[in-house]
Amino acid sequence: MQTECPHCHTVFRINEADLDKADGQVRCGHCLAIFKADNPYNAKTYQDTDNSFDTDENIQPVVADVIPPELRAESRKGRSRFGFLGTFLLAIAILSGIAALFLQYAYYNRGNLVKISELRPWLEQMCEFTGCTLPAPKDTRLIVLSGKNIFTHPNTENALMISATIINQASFTQDFPIIELRFENVRGQTIAGRRFFAEEYLGIPKNQISKMQPDTPVNFNLEIKDPGNEVVSYEFTFL
Fold it and tell me: What does 27-66 look like in DSSP terms, one character per residue?
């Protein structure tokens, strides 16, 4: 017996005994569609003897559905709408997470970030939202000693006079630093040293000291006890 696939119209031979075992269900070897070969409403079936067929030409053949429901066009269309919404929500969640991480980083590193003048307005808004306070920007690495001179005190025995100039090279104002002065011997060992606060080397009360302005030289003088003849070098450090 021969049958015609109603999907691709391929005609092929089938065994009636095999057809009975499969309850009339066959699979097209060309397009792999499944259809019921012995149902006159589903396929054209030809007899080998007289080439006749037992179906009406006016009846439209019914093709077995070989497309899984999840792959149907209407299912894909619905899932596409849901997928867009899911993708949008996922993007919002990712951006929110990034923003939260940035705020956390900015909060715990505001002491360093506040040195960047362009970021200060954003940090101020962040602190208004979180209730934190911005520390005054400070970077002693940007305070340089532009001139220094140490000589014997003209009026006091066993004393030295220090004359120096410091400049704030930062783009922001900052507090005057603590100045540490160390004297070393020929072996590089510190044999004398002291730290001076701003009110000491500026010679004015602490409550009257303002900020160091950018690129503005500040001159000061210090009087110290002579550390002795073993001194061969000295060093200034800003704290």
Answer: E-TTT--EEETT-TTT-EEE-TTT--B-S-TTSPPPPP--
